[in-house]
Write a structure and sequence with these properties.
By secondary structure, the chain is of the alpha/beta class. It has a domain at about 85-110 and about 220-400: 3-Layer(aba) Sandwich (Rossmann fold), CATH 3.40.50.1100. It has helices spanning about 20-25, 50-60, 70-80, 110-125, 140-150, 170-175, 190-200, 220-235, 250-260, 275-280, 310-325, 330-345, 350-365, 385-390, 400-405, 420-430; strands at about 5, 35, 85-90, 95-100, 130-135, 155-160, 180-185, 210-215, 240-245, 265-270, 325-330, 375, 415. The strands form 3 sheets. The protein has a 6-stranded mixed beta sheet. α12 crosses α13. The radius of gyration is 20 Å and the shape is globular. It starts with a strand and ends with a helix. The protein binds pyridoxal-5'-phosphate. Pyridoxal-5'-phosphate binds near residues 245, 246, 299 and 378.
Length: about 425
């Protein structure tokens, strides 16, 4: 049976299939697509010999009836062609495993979703049809999407990022020239960028353009992200606590989807920086969306997490609070965490991963040490040389694939944080 998707704001009778949900990103009523039923995991999923085999088995099941199995298999194998190590820490950190999600081409977990989504979109785009994929990024999504979609026939990309709020290394990865990609440096915050993207969908002048979104609102990104939680659990060998450094809550929603499909977990931790809406909500405190606050873990600087609506739809407040524990970590604690983990284990963590590790260190005193813990390591430390040097007293080692970005030509336009400015760019690009 094919999985049907409905809008978080719609009724259960109005549904679309996977291909439609993938192409639209956001539902016409402004809601997010959610699966009406989560397919259960194939019985033998834990016996998959490699991450890629596991990925194919699970995704083929999700897309059953929506796309041909061999097309899905080719897309998934081409997209997820890099390693996914699960690294155990030692000493005081015994029992804690770092799930390294940064071995793709742009060195963050965003490569999983972006690469898979682009290939599935290319495979399902009717001949002659074109689509403009918009993406608002607070750091890593934009480069993963630009890299994943560049050069794919019929697909253009418009990416928006907030001026001065991404690291120099992240910015470099965003603005290297890529075929079919326009990079926009917006005079505003990440939330402004996200609002502009949502506004473009509602813009009557843009109805003919074939807009899509590659933000974590797109269900096509969440499915591949749910796979690595299965992989980590298989490596650890029993139900683990899973800690997810979070911003827009897409990666956390992916963990929840894996759980709803049958993955046993001992609990899930939502580790946040000073942008603490979700931990406050989970602990029953008065919580409301707000402007984002800049921090060292900038890809998590989100005041209004877009997937919150999806999480609430999937589980509701009571079940969410029972399954997910929240934690907030300050910038000072983030640096201390990087330093502590490096001193105690030799492991170099990036600031986002450090937020997760600090949340675990704090919460472990209440959990006890018997249950394994998996911390999602969302980015490579070399993307944040300033913070890493400050914390551990030496710069991180830089992999060749990151160093190579500095040898490439760049292309970027500065624009104001307005819908008018974005509309002009989209219309111009669509005419070319
Ligand atoms: C995007 C990102 C996050 C936050 O993920 P969400 O799915 O938005 O919660 C965390 N760390 C890094 C490095 C990221 O790029």
């Amino acid at each position: 049976m094919p999985v049907s998707y409905q809008s978080t704001r719609g009724d259960s009778a109005t549904t679309v299939g996977f291909v439609e949900a993938l192409r639209r990103g956001l539902a016409p009523d402004g809601g997010l697509y959610v699966p009406q039923e989560v397919p259960s995991l194939p019985a033998d999923w834990a016996r998959s010999p490699s991450f890629q085999d596991l990925a194919v088995r699970v995704i083929v099941r999700w897309l059953d009836g929506a796309m041909e199995a061999d097309v899905v298999e080719a897309a998934v194998r081409d997209a997820l062609n890099f390693p996914v190590p699960v690294v155990p820490l030692a000493g005081a950190w015994e029992g804690v495993h770092v799930l390294e999600l940064f071995h793709g081409p742009t060195l963050s977990f965003k490569d999983f979703g972006a690469r898979t989504m682009s290939r599935l979109m290319a495979a399902s785009l009717p001949a002659g049809e074109e689509v403009t994929v918009m993406v608002a990024t607070s750091g890593d999504t934009g480069s993963a999407v630009a890299d994943g979609f560049s050069g794919i026939p019929g697909v253009r990309v418009v990416l928006l990022y907030p001026d001065g709020q991404v690291s120099p290394t992240q910015e470099r990865q965003l603005i290297v020239q890529r075929e079919g990609v326009v990079a926009l440096r917006v005079d505003g915050t990440f939330d402004d960028c996200q609002r502009m993207v949502k506004g473009a969908f509602a813009d009557p002048d843009l109805q003919g353009v074939g807009l899509s979104s590659a933000n974590s609102i797109n269900i096509g990104r969440l499915l591949p992200q749910s796979l690595y939680y299965l992989w980590a659990s298989r490596a650890v060998g029993k139900a683990a606590r899973i800690c997810v450094p979070s911003g827009n809550l897409g990666n956390l929603t992916a963990a929840v989807l894996a759980h709803l499909g049958g993955l046993e977990v001992a609990g899930i931790v939502a580790a946040h920086n000073a942008n603490r809406f979700f931990p406050d909500y989970l602990s029953g405190r008065e919580a409301s969306f707000s402007r984002s606050v800049p921090t060292l873990s900038n890809a998590m600087d989100v005041g209004a997490p877009s997937n919150f609506e999806r999480l609430k739809w999937l589980l509701g407040r009571d079940k969410l609070s029972a399954l997910v524990e929240g934690a907030t970590v300050t910038d000072t604690e983030t640096l201390e965490s990087m330093k502590r983990v490096y001193g105690e284990t030799g492991y170099v963590a990036d600031p986002h991963t450090a937020v997760g590790l600090e949340a675990v260190r704090r919460l472990r005193t209440t959990w006890g040490h018997g249950t394994p813990v998996v911390v999602a390591s969302t980015a490579h430390p070399a993307k944040f040389p300033e913070s890493v040097s400050q914390a551990i007293g030496r710069p991180p080692d830089v992999p060749d694939r990151l160093a190579a970005f500095w040898d490439r030509p760049i292309a970027v336009h500065g624009i104001s944080a307005s819908g008018d400015a974005l509309r002009a760019v989209i219309l111009k690009q669509a005419r070319e």
